[in-house]
């Protein structure tokens, strides 16, 4: 094996990273721009961050978004997990194909169509559009992502663990909570986080299903950008990026550390015989 | 690891073993009764109208190839499958319809199925806590179980911090903790290496004796079944072929299937020449000029086609013809030799092209003139070495 990287490897990596991250880096840099003009650099400043926290409209939108995302992620996780269990556990029940198709439809459906059809539904049943309709719409389209994540974990789940619990006198409902759920919990949490981020940055479906008084952060940013990009928006985006980055790094470090500890324990056990 | 049993207790265990035979006692009431049990999965018949009695304190083995229905039979007792037809009785009560969590059976799973998010201690205490046993009693029982499987120091560990052998012990302790009426063992030693497996077999027997419990083991490993079990049921295609003590299964198989499945065997087709009380004379098809005399009462009539089952270790391979003309004898050439250290297995080709296997213990380290390839040899066996099979 040759050590090191060829010029081809190096340039592919550089190009790949540049393609992915230059826009984000630019955004972060310009959020510290002292100038009001987005594309003209006028020295370092945190002015726009202060400005941001004075902007009640943006803060309100952020608060709405967080509430929607939290509620969406929680409900979608419960429903998505139930759907995943049904699909992996109950064999070929009548209507399984239909059910599985319905669960996964939003995965491939263009967002515009999902949004429009939900809007029509809400209008038809006379639901006042606002916070709750956005949440319902988000639950609908994030549920399938949770279901996919949880289902992939359940496929490799050793059924004899549940049988062992039943065998030892634990009723089925309790077995789910004391054995199944703790073991698939990492997948359920990933599903929750996925649903949370999907809801957090959804613009299209939220625009269709929103009503007066319920403007989410992506909607607010989008409407402001149409009037011209302000450094304030850059600052808001930078904060979002920072939060996401910190969470992702934290989670991956935790997983890595767990993995290392597990391997260490296994080596120890093997050595003891 | 040693079995931890003193010579004295071993003797008493041996004594109990010798006299233990409730299946011969017409008064004995079976603990487990399968009554005309059939289990179908769609078109496939896993268990076919099977009846079987298992007695208290018995170590019973279900033996058969994969797909013979042995695991289904056990899972029906645990409650994971319901029979399509028939009854399963445990201590006189019909179990059909009772969910697994209300049955007084516990199972040790092939994969061990230890709860990965719980410590060894919590795994063993799991079943006790389901019964709302009070805390002091749970602790005492878990301590006792850890001691039984010699894992006192490992209570705080998680399953992934244990070796394969230790996990197997935790699984055993967990399934024993509730003192079930029957312990079900589903290929319990399949994942262990050969040496550890052999040690563990003896430990299982000791634990079963010590606790005086009924064990039902499912295995495809005939050596394992022979070692641990009081009685073995050999299964094929959802039916019981033979149910008996290991020595009977090995020495008096009732069919070609059992003879072939349990141990190494030569099966020679033959025609019955004459039947006398206690003796049957046969003409083997592989060597029609010879006659075999087998000491056996057999319902066959002259002219019937039967088979002779001959265990390799009961056959001798020598350069010279036997002195006693009554001894059954075949002549052939060495075709192949399997040297196993303790034994050598000689494959002898008969003039007609058929081959028989004969085992010879290597009693000394050196032999002046060892039997080798292409040697002309005699293979012979006494009248009580073979078994005549009519099915």
From TrEMBL, chain A:
PROSITE patterns: ABC_TM1 (PS50928). The chain crosses the membrane at residues 7-32, 68-90, 102-125, 131-155, 176-198, 233-254. The keyword Membrane applies. InterPro entries: Bact_Polyamine_Transport (IPR051789), MetI-like (IPR000515), MetI-like_sf (IPR035906). Residues 62-252 form the ABC transmembrane type-1 domain. GO terms for cellular component: plasma membrane. Keywords: Cell membrane, Membrane, Transmembrane, Transmembrane helix, Transport. CDD domains: TM_PBP2. It is a multi-pass membrane protein. The keyword Transport applies. It holds the Pfam family BPD_transp_1. It is found in: Cell membrane. One of its GO terms (biological process) is transmembrane transport. SUPFAM superfamilies: MetI-like. Belongs to the binding-protein-dependent transport system permease family. CysTW subfamily. This is Putrescine transport system permease protein. It comes from Ancylobacter aquaticus.
UniProtKB/TrEMBL annotation, chain B:
PROSITE patterns: ABC_TRANSPORTER_1, ABC_TRANSPORTER_2. GO terms for biological process: putrescine transport. It comes from the Bacteria. InterPro entries: AAA+_ATPase, ABC_SmlMolc_Importer, ABC_transporter-like_ATP-bd, ABC_transporter-like_CS, Mo/tungstate-bd_C_term_dom, P-loop_NTPase, PotA-like, Transp-assoc_OB_typ2. Pfam families: ABC_tran, TOBE_2. Keywords: ATP-binding, Cell inner membrane, Cell membrane, Membrane, Nucleotide-binding, Translocase, Transport. This is Spermidine/putrescine import ATP-binding protein PotA. Residues 32-262 form the ABC transporter domain. The complex is composed of two ATP-binding proteins (PotA), two transmembrane proteins (PotB and PotC) and a solute-binding protein (PotD). It is an enzyme of class 7 (translocase). Belongs to the ABC transporter superfamily. Spermidine/putrescine importer (TC 3.A.1.11.1) family. One of its GO terms (molecular function) is ABC-type polyamine transporter activity. It comes from Ancylobacter aquaticus. GO terms for cellular component: ATP-binding cassette (ABC) transporter complex. Part of the ABC transporter complex PotABCD involved in spermidine/putrescine import. Responsible for energy coupling to the transport system. It catalyses: ATP + H2O + polyamine-[polyamine-binding protein]Side 1 = ADP + phosphate + polyamineSide 2 + [polyamine-binding protein]Side 1. NCBIfam families: potA. Its EC number is 7.6.2.11.
């Amino acid at each position: 094996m040759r050590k090191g990287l060829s010029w081809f490897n190096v340039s592919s990596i550089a190009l790949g990273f540049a393609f992915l991250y230059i826009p984000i880096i630019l955004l972060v840099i310009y959020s510290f721009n002292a100038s009001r003009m987005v594309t003209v650099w006028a020295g370092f400043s945190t002015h726009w961050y202060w400005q941001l926290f004075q902007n009640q409209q943006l803060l309100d939108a952020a608060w709405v978004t967080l509430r929607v995302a939290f509620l969406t992620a929680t409900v979608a996780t419960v429903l998505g997990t139930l759907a995943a269990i049904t699909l992996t556990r109950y064999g070929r029940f009548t209507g399984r194909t239909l059910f599985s198709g319905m669960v996964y439809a939003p995965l491939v459906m263009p967002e515009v169509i999902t949004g429009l059809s939900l809007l029509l539904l809400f209008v038809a049943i006379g639901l006042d559009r606002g916070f709750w309709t956005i949440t319902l719409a988000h639950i609908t389209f994030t549920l399938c992502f949770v279901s996919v994540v949880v289902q992939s974990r359940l496929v490799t789940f050793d059924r004899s663990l549940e049988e062992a619990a039943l065998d030892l006198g634990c009723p089925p409902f309790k077995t789910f909570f004391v054995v199944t759920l703790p073991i698939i919990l990492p997948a359920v949490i990933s599903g929750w986080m996925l649903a949370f981020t999907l809801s957090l940055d959804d613009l299209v479906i939220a625009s269709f299903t929103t009503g007066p008084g319920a403007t989410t952060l992506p909607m607010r940013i989008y409407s402001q950008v149409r009037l011209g990009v302000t450094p304030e928006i850059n600052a808001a985006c930078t904060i979002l990026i920072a939060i996401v980055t910190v969470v992702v790094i934290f989670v991956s470090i935790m997983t890595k550390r767990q993995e290392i500890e597990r391997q260490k324990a296994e080596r120890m056990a093997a050595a003891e015989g | 690891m040693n079995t931890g049993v003193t010579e004295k207790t071993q003797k008493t265990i041996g004594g109990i073993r010798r006299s233990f035979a409730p299946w011969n006692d017409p008064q004995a009431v079976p603990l487990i009764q399968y009554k005309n049990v059939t289990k179908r999965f769609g078109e496939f018949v896993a268990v076919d109208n099977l009846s079987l009695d298992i007695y208290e304190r018995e170590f019973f083995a279900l033996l058969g190839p994969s797909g013979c229905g042995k695991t289904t039979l056990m899972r029906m007792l645990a409650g994971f499958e319901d029979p399509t037809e028939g009854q399963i009785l445990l201590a006189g009560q019909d179990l059909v319809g009772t969910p697994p969590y209300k049955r007084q059976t516990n199972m040790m799973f092939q994969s061990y199925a230890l709860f990965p998010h719980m410590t060894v201690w919590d795994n063993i205490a799991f079943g006790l806590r389901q019964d709302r046993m009070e805390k002091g009693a749970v602790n005492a029982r878990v301590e006792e179980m850890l001691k039984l499987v010699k894992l006192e120091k490992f209570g705080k560990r998680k399953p992934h911090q244990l070796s394969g052998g230790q996990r197997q012990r935790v699984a055993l302790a967990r399934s024993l903790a509730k003192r079930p009426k029957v312990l079900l063992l589903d290929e319990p030693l399949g994942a262990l290496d050969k040496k550890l497996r052999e040690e563990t077999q003896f430990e299982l027997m000791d634990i079963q004796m010590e606790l005086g419990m009924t064990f039902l083991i499912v295995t495809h490993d005939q050596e394992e079944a022979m070692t641990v079990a009081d009685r073995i049921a050999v299964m094929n295609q959802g039916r019981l072929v033979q149910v008996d003590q290991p020595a009977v299964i090995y020495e008096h198989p009732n069919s070609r299937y059992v003879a072939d499945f349990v141990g190494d065997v030569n099966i020679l087709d033959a025609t019955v020449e004459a039947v006398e009380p206690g003796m049957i004379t046969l003409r083997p098809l592989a060597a029609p000029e010879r006659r075999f005399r087998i000491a056996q009462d057999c319902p066959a009539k002259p002219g019937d086609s039967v088979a002779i089952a001959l265990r390799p270790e009961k056959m001798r391979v020598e350069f010279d013809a036997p002195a006693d003309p009554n001894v059954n004898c075949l002549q052939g050439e060495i075709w192949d030799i399997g040297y196993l250290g303790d034994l050598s297995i000689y494959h002898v080709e008969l003039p007609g092209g058929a081959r028989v296997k004969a085992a010879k213990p290597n009693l000394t380290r050196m032999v002046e003139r060892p039997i080798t390839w292409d040697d002309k040899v005699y293979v012979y066996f006494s009248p009580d070495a073979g078994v005549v099979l009519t099915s």
